[in-house]
What we know:
The complex is a heterodimer of chains A (115) and B (114). Chain A is an all-beta fold and 115 residues long. Helices cover 0% and strands 52% of the residues of chain A. Chain A has no helices and twelve strands. In chain A, strands 2, 5, 6, 10, 11 and 12 form a six-stranded mixed sheet that branches. In chain A, strands 3-9-8-7 form a four-stranded antiparallel sheet, with no helix packed on it. Chain A has a two-stranded antiparallel ribbon with strand order 1-4. In chain A, a hairpin with a 4-residue loop joins β8 and β9 (74-79). Chain B is mostly beta strands. Chain B has no helices and eleven strands. Chain B has strands spanning 5-7, 10-13, 19-24, 31-37, 44-50, 53-57, 64-68, 73-78, 87-94, 103-105, 109-113. In chain B, strands 2, 4, 5, 6, 9, 10 and 11 form a seven-stranded mixed sheet that branches. In chain B, strands 1-3-8-7 form a four-stranded antiparallel sheet, with no helix packed on it. Chain B starts with a strand and ends with a strand. The chains are: A mainly beta (115), B mainly beta (114).
Amino acid sequence: AQKITQTQPGMFVQEKEAVTLDCTYDTSDPSYGLFWYKQPSSGEMIFLIYQGSYDQQNATEGRYSLNFQKARKSANLVISASQLGDSAMYFCAMRERARNTPLVFGKGTRLSVIA
Amino acid sequence: ETGVTQSPTHLIKTRGQQVTLRCSSQSGHNTVSWYQQALGQGPQFIFQYYREEENGRGNFPPRFSGLQFPNYSSELNVNALELDDSALYLCASTLGDSGPGELFFGEGSRLTVL
C-alpha cells in the first residue's frame, strides 16, 4: 500500500531564506506521481508542483523545486526566497499508476515565515 | 482560483442528522473526488466519480454517498451523522484526460457535528 511520511510537524524560516520540507514515500509500483500542495488558513488546497517517477530531471515551478531522490524514495520541496505569504500547511501526496487513482496525502508540515 | 466552488462553507448539525454538501467544477473536469480532512490531519480519500459513476472508494462506510451530475456538479451525502464526522470536506476535480492529473480543490465545507 502506498504511504506518505512528512516528519516535520512545523518549520520556521526567515523571510528571503530558502527552506526544505521533507517527504518520503513508500510504494511497490514503478509508475507513480508525486505532488505538493499548499493549504492556507482559508482551507483551499493549492497545487504547487508535480514529479513523475520516470522524470529524469527535478521539477521546478518558479520559487518551488522538488528534490527527487528515487533510490531514497524522497521528494522534498524546496522553497527559495521565502515570503510572508508562504506561511501555510504544506502537503506531499502520491498517486500510483493510472492518473485517475486517488491521491494519498501525508499529514502535512506547517511552515511559518518570520519577518 | 481553481474554478471549483463548494457550498455551504460552514454548517453545524447534530448527531443523527443528514447533510448534503455541494460542489461545482469547471466544464471538462470529468472526474470529481471528495476528501475528508480532520483537524491537524491530511485529507483522506472518500470516493471518486468519473462521468457520473463511482469508480473508487476509500475506507468510509456506506452512509457516505455521492452523486455526480452531467453539468459537472456533484454532491456528498452523509447520513446518521456522528461526532467524528466533524471535519473539512474538500471537493476536487481533474481536468480532462491530459497532464499529470493534479487535483483542483475547492475551499471546502467545514462541518461541525454536535
